């Protein structure tokens, strides 16, 4: 029979082996908080696009010696965007520190590809494209994701079959020409006021444009097809 001190030592050792290892150390808790802050920030920013958003952050991207922070603040450094391969900054107000964490954001969505080789000057119709689904964050900027972005538009360059259609391949159709007389619609909480004026710049649909009202006041609004400019909300 084992002596009592020996039995006690063996029992203690068995209990230690059976107990799960603790992982909620200050460092791992700080790493988890950083991962959550970056993930939520990128999910919120990337969700402004249509499509299903997935955020990937490698374990090695989170510093092992990360310091705890009660209120980490995520932000996009200059030149970064909230999709594809990107880098997110995280700053802590107290204690003050800033670090940068690489991540990848996937946006699963439909996009348009040329159904066959398209010649420059072609006017696009439904027979000219196919809809595919994939990670649009990995595609070139300006890739078209909806048929209404392409139908009736004219290609400014040839496009090989199977190639994603992009906005910079299309001729720009000016919704408002410089010097054109336009209708100005001012919007506000509970009201809408119409005026007229002269466009000081040319702009495509959805682009900003400056207008001088008949009163002489200069406003900036958003150009709309049909010679209309929206100002305000």
From TrEMBL:
The name this protein goes by in its record: Flagella basal body P-ring formation protein FlgA
Localization: Periplasm
Keyword Signal appears in the UniProt entry: yes
Major location (coarse): periplasm
Family matches, as Gene3D superfamilies: 2.30.30.760, Antifreeze-like/N-acetylneuraminic acid synthase C-terminal domain (3.90.1210.10)
Domain SAF: 109-171
CDD domains reported for this sequence: SAF_CpaB_FlgA_like
InterPro entries associated with the record: Flagellar_FlgA (IPR039246), FlgA_N (IPR041231), SAF (IPR013974), SAF_FlgA (IPR017585)
Signal peptide interval: 1-23
Keywords: Bacterial flagellum biogenesis, Cell projection, Cilium, Flagellum, Periplasm, Signal
Family: Belongs to the FlgA family.
Gene that this sequence comes from: flgA
Source species, domain of life: Bacteria
Protein role: Involved in the assembly process of the P-ring formation. It may associate with FlgF on the rod constituting a structure essential for the P-ring assembly or may act as a modulator protein for the P-ring assembly.
Family annotation (Pfam families): ChapFlgA (PF13144), ChapFlgA_N (PF17656)
Coiled coil feature spans: none
């Amino acid at each position: 029979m084992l002596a009592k001190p020996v039995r006690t030592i063996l029992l203690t050792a068995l209990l230690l082996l059976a107990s799960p290892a603790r992982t909620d150390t200050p460092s791992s808790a700080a790493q988890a908080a950083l991962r959550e802050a970056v993930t939520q920030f990128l999910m919120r920013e990337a969700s402004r696009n249509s499509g299903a958003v997935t955020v990937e952050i490698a374990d090695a991207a989170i510093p092992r010696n990360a310091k705890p922070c009660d209120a980490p603040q995520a932000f996009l450094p200059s030149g970064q965007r909230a999709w594809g391969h990107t880098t997110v900054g995280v700053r802590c107000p107290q204690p003050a520190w800033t670090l940068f964490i690489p991540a990848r954001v996937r946006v699963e969505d439909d996009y348009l590809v040329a159904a066959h080789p398209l010649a420059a000057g072609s006017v696009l119709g439904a027979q000219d494209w196919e809809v595919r689904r994939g990670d649009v964050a990995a595609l070139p900027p300006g890739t078209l994701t909806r048929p209404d972005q392409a139908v009736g538009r004219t290609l400014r360059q040839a496009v090989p079959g199977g190639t994603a259609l992009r906005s910079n391949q299309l001729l720009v159709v000016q919704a408002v020409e410089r010097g054109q007389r336009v209708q100005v619609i001012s919007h506000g909480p509970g009201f809408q006021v119409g005026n007229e004026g002269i466009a000081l710049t040319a702009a495509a649909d959805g682009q900003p444009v400056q207008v001088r009202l008949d009163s002489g006041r200069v406003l900036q609004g958003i150009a709309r097809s049909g010679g209309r400019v929206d100002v305000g909300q």
